[in-house]
């Protein structure tokens, strides 16, 4: 077996994992964020982040523990004990929440909560903070997975599926597509507080062109250095950056109104193309596609585009719903419950398509895969919004230590999630470069856990530390000039 074949077999799986494991992994990551937001105001007593260099970096290491370590443990050392880890973190969060409520009960708790229920969420209260949480936590999970998959400590059932099934590694592209659409729609909503410029940038400065450049650069570099590639992921030359760029191009030339209707149309056309033409069977049959030309060599990447467009427009529809949320706290809390209900409905539809059509297939992005990803992403959005609304409510209700500052998130600032969100592309590129360097330096697939886990923790801390340092320099620069 060649080195490329050996690597491809090692970083893939034929069976995948149970879907509940995906939900548990996301829940564990988000519980880490919730526990962080519960504990930091008491640890630092509401101290602002820009008053001390020591405080800033102490909060960074706290963020690594709360935001990064749970994801890493869930996908490595504790991957066989996800239920236990979830229960332990839920109990910790519950105890801390009871402590917060007990402390607040001395200050007319019921009256404060009733007052907070009708408060207006204004622009300076950062009403779209949940998008930042969702994007940054997803980025952490993806960053862990892209290197951890090369180590034996990463369960093979979490690796990319070759044909059908659920897998942690199958979530990445769909998550980026979902958050791109959601963030794009929320940025244009009145509640975002963002002022959109009327000046269009030159085409060579757009994010779409940059993604094409990165995709081309990645393909060339991997070909030159002979880095082993998982061909059945996207094809021979296609990669993640090309998919994101192509979806943006189609979005720029296709209609933007009625995203829900368009997502239904795209989904029906895509699934019909897969089944009626035999395209799905041809792609999944390893002996049928000989990859003789540029199109067949990249069959997976090209075929999946209409499926990802379906996810993109469905995500836009969810973004439309979120953008219509009223400005009061109670409206945002109701929206949390509505998102959980939508997630449940999507899950029921997914179960139906799984029985009537096919199990989820990442390589062709069939209709079951589309619904499975929309279910997970909508659920994750609802949880992130719930965490955001906790901070908003306790700030509006003047809870001790949680009500300091000009907005609901001042007592827990700075958050590593902000640094990752503002520098998401840099964070992802740094993680890709470090992944390549580590794989070229060590034989990752032979390292035992006692060596691989410290490497993964150091890699994740380095990626986070670089983008957080950039934010520190920006904050310091602004503060010094303000003085």
UniProtKB/TrEMBL annotation:
Membrane topology annotation: Multi-pass membrane protein
InterPro entries xref list: PIGW/GWT1 (IPR009447)
An annotated GO BP: GPI anchor biosynthetic process
Cellular localisation: Endoplasmic reticulum membrane; Membrane
Pathway: Glycolipid biosynthesis; glycosylphosphatidylinositol-anchor biosynthesis
Keyword Metal-binding belongs to the record: no
Record's GO cellular component terms: endoplasmic reticulum membrane
Membrane-crossing segments per the record: 21-44, 56-75, 82-102, 133-152, 164-182, 202-222, 335-353, 373-397, 425-445, 451-470
Keywords, comma-separated and alphabetical: Acyltransferase, Endoplasmic reticulum, GPI-anchor biosynthesis, Membrane, Transferase, Transmembrane, Transmembrane helix
Single GO MF descriptor: glucosaminyl-phosphatidylinositol O-acyltransferase activity
EC number: 2.3.-.-
PANTHER family: PHOSPHATIDYLINOSITOL-GLYCAN BIOSYNTHESIS CLASS W PROTEIN
Family designation: Belongs to the PIGW family.
Role of this protein: A acetyltransferase, which acetylates the inositol ring of phosphatidylinositol during biosynthesis of GPI-anchor.
The protein's name: Phosphatidylinositol-glycan biosynthesis class W protein
